[in-house]
Amino acid sequence: MQTVVTRCRRFTGRTVVILGGNSGIGRASALAFADEGAFVIVTGRDPDTLAQVRSDLGERGRVFRSDVSEIAGTQALMQQIKAEHGHIDVLFVNAGIGAFRPIEAVDEAFYDQMFAINLKGPYFAVKHALELMGDGGSIVLTSSMGHCTGIPGNSVYGASKAGLRALARTFGAELVKRGIRVNCFSPGPIDTPLITRGEMSDEEIAGFRQMICEQVPMGRFGTAEEAARSVLYLASDDAAYVTGIDLLVDGGAVSF
Fold it and tell me: Which of 6, 40, 46, 207 is deepest in the core (most CB within 10 A)?
């Protein structure tokens, strides 16, 4: 007898917006949402990776070149989504950057860029998206396990991500009466292009990978697809009684 595997389609008929969905966890989440029936709107800054996501999604979504740190641009994007789609069911704020610098090497430009992209931009993205969201809506913010532990050289990045964790808690309390859930997703060592986008040399990246594999209880990096499954859980009705939490997806790095 032949066994038929039916894919769960928890997001059929829903509109999902992913800010920073053109690579890594964002891209994996975009494809997973689309596979489960959603129409997915993806933003990002890199035209090449956006083109690839556009090809992967086909008629199941569309992409926009957008920088989350440009508040006016985000507001205009939300108005365009409102005009063309009417509403947003799920907002996944995943845009972010990361880099290690000891305090002696941190200047105002580095600090301001990190906070503009990792915290200020996401804050106002939520603000401008709320006009399009209502009862049953879900917001997921990507933080990081970096807000949970003291890692040398991680002060600016960790602080910006700690701010996102705080937003999930406070937005969750503020928006619960409107039927909108807000949760935080904190990935640990996930194998994505973000690892190579910082200021480390190839040798430093190799050493970093080895260190992670030695320190993480599961002994490996997670995959973008594994992380995406956690994002979809928080966004779905499976988590209908869950709001304000921080879901660590880190191979046990913080817990043990």
Answer: 40
Q: How confident is the model at residue 1 (pLDDT cuts 50, 70, 90)?
A: very low
Side chain identity at residue 132, one-letter code: L
| CA 42/CA 91 separation, integer angstroms | 10
In this predicted structure, the answer to whether residue 103 has a pLDDT above a threshold of 80 is: yes
Say what the pTM is. Answer: 0.91
- The two tokens of residue 142 are 């990507």
Catalytic status, residue 157: yes
Residue 171 CA to residue 165 CA, distance in Å, equals 10
Find the farthest-apart pair of alpha carbons in the chain and give their distance in angstroms, rounded: 67
Token pair of 126 as six digits: 């939520």
According to the 3-state scheme, what is the secondary structure of the chain?
Answer: CCCCCCCCCCCCCCEEEEECCCCHHHHHHHHHHHHCCCEEEEEECCHHHHHHHHHHHHHHEEEEECCCCCHHHHHHHHHHHHHHHCCCCEEEECCCCCCCCCHHHCCHHHHHHHHHHHHHHHHHHHHHHHHHCCCCCEEEEECCHHHCCCCCCCHHHHHHHHHHHHHHHHHHHHHHHHCCEEEEEEECCECCHHHHCCCCCHHHHHHHHHHHHHHCCCCCCECHHHHHHHHHHHHCHHHCCCCCCEEEECCCCCCC
Domains and CATH numbers, the chain: 15-249 (3.40.50.720)
Q: How far is CA 251 from the centre of its chain?
A: 18
Q: How confident is the model at residue 211 (pLDDT cuts 50, 70, 90)?
A: confident
